[in-house]
Specification:
Number of strands: 6
CATH class: Alpha Beta
Strand order of the largest sheet: 1-2-3-4-6-5
Number of helices: 4
CATH architecture: Alpha-Beta Complex
Number of domains: 1
Largest sheet: 6 strands, antiparallel
Order of helices and strands: HEEEEHEEHH
Distance between the termini: 25 Å
Structural class: alpha+beta
Strand content: 15-25%
Length: about 120
């Protein structure tokens, strides 16, 4: 997945915002909370996303994936898809979509209503 494909996909999810921060990373948020980070190598994108406990255990050992640097070392369940073979694009999109849902579910009910996310 290229950065353009990554950004286009993340933009298609409900109530998202995009910022470039942390040394040029493409950061996507829902309700002000991060759900996906794309960066930093422009040649082969590394995409970081939040996962369930089960997905974390499955993906942490998959070639091309690893517990996300910085985030996972603090006990957070984030995976980074960083090298070949990694995840096929459709699987990566599914995990990003799930990350969006996990983060949106953690927002207050009021914030979910304001963003039109109560049906996720």
């Amino acid at each position: 997945m290229t950065y353009d494909e990554y950004n286009t996909f993340c933009e298609s999810l409900p109530a998202t915002t995009h910022v470039v921060q942390w040394g040029g990373a493409h950061v996507w948020k829902v309700g002000g909370k991060v759900f996906a980070i794309g960066g930093w190598d422009e040649v082969s994108p590394a995409v970081t996303f939040k996962v369930s406990d089960i997905a974390f255990e499955m993906l942490r050992e998959q070639p091309g994936c690893r517990p996300a640097p910085y985030l996972a070392s603090r006990g957070l369940k984030w995976i980074q898809n960083y090298a070949a073979p990694g995840l096929p694009d459709e699987d990566l999109k599914d995990y990003i979509r799930q990350s969006h849902k996990i983060v949106a579910a953690g927002l207050t009910k009021k914030k979910q209503r304001e963003l039109g996310l109560e049906d996720l």
